[in-house]
Amino acid sequence: MTQTPFSSFMLYIALAVIGTIVVIVVRKQATTINELHTIDVNGVNLTYLIKGAKNGKPVLLLHGNGGHHGKLKILTNQLAQAGYLVYAPDSRGQGANAPLEEYHYIDMAEDMYQMINLLHLGKPVVYGWSDGGIIALQMEVIHPGTVSAIVTSGANIFPEDCGDDFLNIDSVREAHKDDPPLFKMMLYEPNMTAEDMQTIQCPSLIISGENDLIYESHTRLIAENIPNGEAMILPGEDHGSYIRHSRKMGRILIPYLKKIGY
User: Nearest 5 degrees, angle CA 46-CA 49-CA 55?
Assistant: First the structure.
C-alpha cells in the first residue's frame, strides 16, 4: 500500500506521542524509590525500607517494641506522597533481623546514629512510636545535634510510675522475670532524666493519647524539659489507635514538618 504524506505525518505524530509517554514514565520512575536494603551497624545487620522521592528530605521512622517497619506503612506512604524520602528500619533483633539474647535502648540509639552517618542522611527528622520514640530521644541525648527534629508517640524516659502498667515496678519486674528479653527491657529501661531532656536543642513534638499507656504527666515532663519542645495530647486516642490502620499520625506529622520549615 502506498503511504501518503498525510499518513506519514500521522505516523510521525503517533510515534512522537508514544515516545513522550515513555519518557514521562521513565522520568517518574527514576525520581522515586521503593526498596528494601540491609546495613551493618554497631555489630548487627539491619533491614530497612527506603521509600519516597529520591531528592526528598529524609525522615527516619522507628517502630515500637516487637514490631517492624511495616507497622508504620500508612505513615510511610503519606510521607512519600508528600515528597519526603522515608528510611524505615527494623530495629535490632526485630522484624526481619536475627533475634538477640539481650536488648538495650542505648544500643538501638547507637544503631540509628551509625545508620544516619553511613547513609549520609545529614540531619534527618526522626519519628518514633513507643520504643521508637525512646530511641529517638536517647540518640539525641548521647549524640547531640544529630537530627533536625524529633516527633514521638507514647514514649517514656524512665519506666518507674510512667503509666498504670508500670506502677509498683518491683512487683511488675518479679512477675515478668521469665519473659523474653525484649519485653523485660521495657521494665528496666530507658534510664533518662528530665535533665537529659534539657540537652535536646532541636524542635520536638511529644505526643500521647488521652488513654495512652504513658501518663499525660510523663508526656508533659518530657516536652516541658526540651527547650524547643511541645506536648500534644490526643483526645480519645490510646497508645496506637491514631497510628495503626489510621491516617491521623500523618495529618499531624506532615503539617508539623511544614511548620518548622522542613
Answer: 125
| Alpha-carbon separation of residue 133 from 32, 140, 170, 230 (angstroms) | 27, 11, 24, 14
Q: Is the pLDDT score of 22 beyond 60? A: no
The correct CATH number of 33-259 out of 3.40.50.300, 3.40.50.1820, 3.30.160.20, 2.10.109.10 is 3.40.50.1820
Cα distances from 52 to residues 22, 69, 123, 243, 254, in angstroms, run 21, 15, 17, 19, 14
- pLDDT above 70 for 253: yes
Cell numbers describing residue 207: 505526643
d(CA 56, CA 98): 31
| Mean pLDDT for the stretch of residues 172-178 | 90
As a whole number, mean pLDDT of residues 178-189 equals: 94
